[in-house]
Each structure stands twice: as structure tokens, then as C-alpha cells.
Amino acid sequence: MRGDGDTEAVATVTETVLVVEADVLVRLVIAAYLRDCGYRVIEATSADEAMLFLGRDDLRADVVLCAVDLGGETDGFALAQWIRRQRPGLEVLLAGTVAREAHIAGQLCDGGPHLARPYAPQVVLDRIRRLLARRPRG
Amino acid sequence: MVALGFLRMTVLDTYAAEPDACARPMVLVVEDEILIRMMVSESLRQAGCEVVEAASADEALEVLELSASPDVLVTDVKMPGSVDGLELASRVRKTLPGLKVVITSGHALAQNTFGLADAFLAKPFGLDQLVGQVRALVDAA
Hints:
The complex is a heterodimer of chains A (138) and B (141).
Chain A: E1 16-20, H1 24-36, E2 40-44, H2 47-54, E3 63-67, H3 76-86, E4 91-96, H4 99-108, E5 115-116, H5 121-133
Parallel strand pairs in A: 1-2, 1-3, 3-4, 4-5
Helix pairs in contact in A: 2-3
Chain B: H1 4-16, H2 19-23, E1 26-30, H3 34-46, E2 50-54, H4 57-66, E3 72-76, H5 85-95, E4 100-105, E5 119-122, H6 127-140
Parallel strand pairs in B: 1-2, 1-3, 3-4, 4-5
Helix pairs in contact in B: 3-6
């Protein structure tokens, strides 16, 4: 499902994107797209799953793409706050649909105000690229 | 609410538009523990499979309703949700008789899966064992 102009993204990308999305159909589409672009993608269905993954010292992600509404007790905002405390420096992209969510997400994430759902895959890819590009090397 | 029309098209496109994706066997992995799901899925991807991940039998049924049919279903038994892995396998046997089913479990016994699965793997199982089993089922199809 690679779109026009994505060719340059496929190559030697080895970064890991943790996709946290409760809707399986949304999750599989964006995960497949990011894998096509060369990323290693870990799929989490909830904040609890994401925290379980990120809490392991032997596992790591470079970017977390997280829906605001995760359907459980912990939403994307709470997960982003947890990541800020537990994994400072880990980039988080929050995605939601409501203006108020956008405002809160803008305060929680350095990588831009917010992403709109349903995801526009190319926009997600561009945002991930930008976040990874500005990280300090080494 | 997501745009289901858009999604239906996109999910199908994901597996229909790419010749490479069609050439590879597709495996639907159904497992509620993220670390196991991740290890199983990554092992199968490294073995050349296209993998779709579901965290419950409910999610798997949703995927099966909307996306192209996988070649192999690998499912755990005990999972949260309205349906467990045995019921998922039972439904799949009726609706998709050509779909190969591998049941994995740390609780269920192999004899409980008789008639529902083409293979049973007791947890903990080796990833090589699982990949070999999936490959054998694909080759035999």
C-alpha cells in the first residue's frame, strides 16, 4: 500500500515505532504501511501493553504513535505523561479527533500539535521522519 | 468512529495491491500477551510470512470479516473478550474451511482441539517449532 513518493523512505530504516491503537483495523493498516516504509513496528492495543513493552530494559522503541482514545482505563494522554516520566527523550506522536484533544496533545508532545484520525499514512510517515531526524546521534 | 468504507478499501489494498504481499503466505496471529505476540509475529515475518496481529478472538473475527483471507491462523486459547481461541477456531472451520489452524495454549490439552486445529503447540513452545509448523502447513496446502 505504499504511496507515491515513499520510495526514499524504504531502505535502511532500522528504527522501531511502537503503534498504540485499540482499533485493530486502524492499527493493522498503519502498521503495515510503516513496515512497508522500512520501520520495525510493534503493535500495542492499549496503554497497559505499551507500558509493558516500554518497561522492559531489553526492548526499545524510537517513536510511539499513540491514539488518544484507547478504550481502557488509561488513555493516550496518560500514556504520554507516563512516557515523559519513565522514558524521557522518547518521541511521542498523539493522534485524536477532537480540538480539545489537539490542544492537550500539543502540551504533551514536542513533535507538533497532534495528528488527526483516521490516519493519513503519508502524514504519519513525514512526522515520524522529522522526529527521528532531529534526535541527537550516537 | 473511523471511516469504515475507507478502511475496507485500504485493508484490502494492503494485501491485494502488492504482488510481494500476495506471494507470501499470510498468517493471522491471535495472542493477547504483547510480548508473545511480538516474538511470534517477528519470527514469522523473518521467515517470509505476511503477518496480521490480533490481540483477541474478537479482533481476529473483525479482521477476517474485512480483510483478505489468511493462509494460516495461529491462535491462543485463553483470551479476554466474548470469544476464546477454541470458539474462534470452531467458527473459522465453518466459514473458512481452507484456512489452516494452529492452536497454542498453556492450559488447554491437545485432545480438546481435536477437529478444530491442524496443529497444536503447548506453551511454552520454541519459535523455530512454530515457524516450522506454519511452513509445513503452507507447503502441504
